[in-house]
Amino acid sequence: MSENALPAFEIADPSEVVAAIDAVSAGEAIFADCDGTLWAGDVGDDYVRLAAARPELFPRSTAAERDVETYLRRVDHDYEGACLQSALLSQGVDRVAVFAALRSTLAAELRPRRWLLDAMLQAADRGVKLWAVSASGRIPVDVGLDLLGVADRFGVIAVEVDDRGPIAPWSIGFGKVHACRAAGLAAPAVAVGDSVWDGPMLADARHGFRLPKPKDDGRFDASAADLRAGR
Ligand SMILES: [Mg+2]
Predict the structure, then answer these.
(1) pLDDT above 50 for 143
(2) Tell me, what's the pLDDT at 1?
(3) Which residues in 64-81 are b (16+ Cβ under 10 Å) and which e?
(4) One-letter-per-residue 3-state SS of 147-210
């Protein structure tokens, strides 16, 4: 699959995204990518760094699978393979121990995109269903949501593994739509993402928005209320 095959989306204005989320009705759904969308950074990358630093927590992994430089190079030329490499680290781990280790690593640094989280949680308060849809593995995504204090507010579609490997269809690139369908989810009212790889999911939604990268979002830490008020 080439990136050129993916639908193109202009970078959306945060105020328009808040307005679209505000218009979602109870019972409808909002899908959000995680890394670079709900929060700055990539918890799938952090998961590989944790494996490199604490190999004893990842008993089924090889040194090559824990090599951060190899992984980061792979992200650029084999995105799906890189995402699977990170997710597969979870094979055979003690979930509680790995969750705690990653949580303490990320506790000081995971930054939410405040206006997006505000708007989504306020939508959930009036009965909108929230789904985190990520190409990172289930454990790192659960850690991210836990650190944001919203683990009980989101359903999660992430890359899950069992003893045989990744569980298909996995939520990477075009796979995000397939994985959501396999989980019984209909196309959402609103979907948000930050990369070309979110294109199929954005195209599947009634309103799909490609957000600016966190470093390019001048309102990253602003509240949804600020954006609604034009502040
Ligand atoms: Mg992303």
Answers:
(1) yes
(2) 46
(3) ebbbeeebeebbeeebbe
(4) HCCCCCCEEEEEECEECCEECCCCCCCCHHHHHHHHCCCCCCCEEEECCHHHHHHHHHCCEEEE
In the reported structure, the alpha carbon of residue 33 is separated from the centroid of ligand 1 by a whole-number distance in angstroms of 6
Q: How far is CA 65 from CA 89, 103, 192, in A?
A: 8, 21, 30
pLDDT(28) > 80: yes
Q: Classify domain 12-41+111-228 by CATH architecture.
A: 3-Layer(aba) Sandwich (3.40)
Domain ranges of the chain: 12-41+111-228, 43-106
Q: What is the pLDDT of residue 7?
A: 67
Q: How far is the CA of 39 from the centre of ligand 1 (A)?
A: 9
Rounded to the nearest whole angstrom, what is the distance from the C-alpha of residue 84 to the centroid of ligand 1? 15
Q: Please give the distance, rounded to the nearest whole angstrom, from the Cα atom of residue 179 to the centre of ligand 1.
A: 16
Q: Is the pTM of this model over 0.85?
A: yes
Position with higher pLDDT, 10 vs 97: 97
Contacts of 73 (CB under 8 A, 6+ apart): none
Residue range 153-166: mean pLDDT, rounded:
97
CA of 230 to the centre of ligand 1 (A): 26
Q: Is 215 helix (H, G, I), strand (E, B) or coil?
A: helix
